[in-house]
Amino acid sequence: MLARLQRFLDRLDSGGGSTSAPRDELAMAAAVLLARAAALDGTVDEREKAVAADRLVERFGVPRAEIDRVMAEAAHTAEESVDLYGFTRVLKDRLDHDGRLVLMEALWEVVYADGTLHDYEAQLMRRLAGLLFVGDRDSGIARKQALAKLGLDEAGSSD
User: Fold this and answer.
1) For residue 82, pLDDT beyond 90
2) What is the pTM of this model?
3) What distance in Å separates the CA atoms of residue 57 and residue 139, rounded to the nearest whole number?
4) R_g over Cα of the chain
5) What is the mean pLDDT of residues 131-151?
6) Per-residue DSSP letters for 23-77?
7) CA dist., res. 40 & res. 119, Å (int)
8) Counting beta carbons within 10 angstroms of the beta carbon of residue 45, is it exposed (0 to 12), middle (13 to 18) or buried (19 or more)?
9) Residues 79 and 39 sit within 8 Å (Cβ to Cβ)
10) Which of 47, 91, 134, 143 has its CB 3.0 to 4.6 Å from that of 129, i.e. a possible disulfide?
11) DSSP character for 131?
């Protein structure tokens, strides 16, 4: 488990060995965080999977034909890893502030996809905001945008 994570982080540090690898590694780091967010409440339902897949395609350029493979690898990596720092470091370093806000919105969409914000999900989101250097105000704005996209109102969400 630790060896797999170390190989992943080593590839990130080395740039991955090809010109497309940095973009691939950026997408994989985002996919791991999305997978962690989806699984944190104990179950990953189809709505969470669909939202995560759509955001990876739309916002991180993962080809639709590869989405199942990327999501399966990300879910496996998220399940095995205990540390978020390596993934958030890649995202923080390679995304500008607006890109990190887009990521936060995608993460909020995944945690709210089932209509409920669980305590562990709320804790994860606070932690990720700090690791990604996204302030509370900006994270709150991303949260509200995610709720609006999902057709949920704040009063109906449990947090």
Assistant:
1) no
2) 0.82
3) 22
4) 15
5) 96
6) HHHHHHHHHHHHHHHHHTTS---HHHHHHHHHHHHHHH---GGGHHHHHHHHHHH
7) 9
8) exposed
9) yes
10) 134
11) H
Distances in Å between the Cα of 68 and the Cα atoms of 10, 65, 77 are 24, 8, 14
First to last CA, the chain: 33
From CA 13, how far away is CA 8, in angstroms rounded?
A: 9
- Rounded distance, CA 156 to CA 151, Å? 10
d(CA 63, CA 133): 28
Task: Please choose, from the candidates 154, 137, 156, the residue with its C-alpha nearest in 3D space to the C-alpha of residue 146.
Answer: 154
**Residue carrying structure tokens 């967010």:** 37
Q: pLDDT band at 139, cuts 50/70/90?
A: very high
pLDDT, greater one: 155 or 95: 95
Rounded distance between C-alpha atoms, residue 153 and residue 53, angstroms: 23
Three-class DSSP category at 14: helix
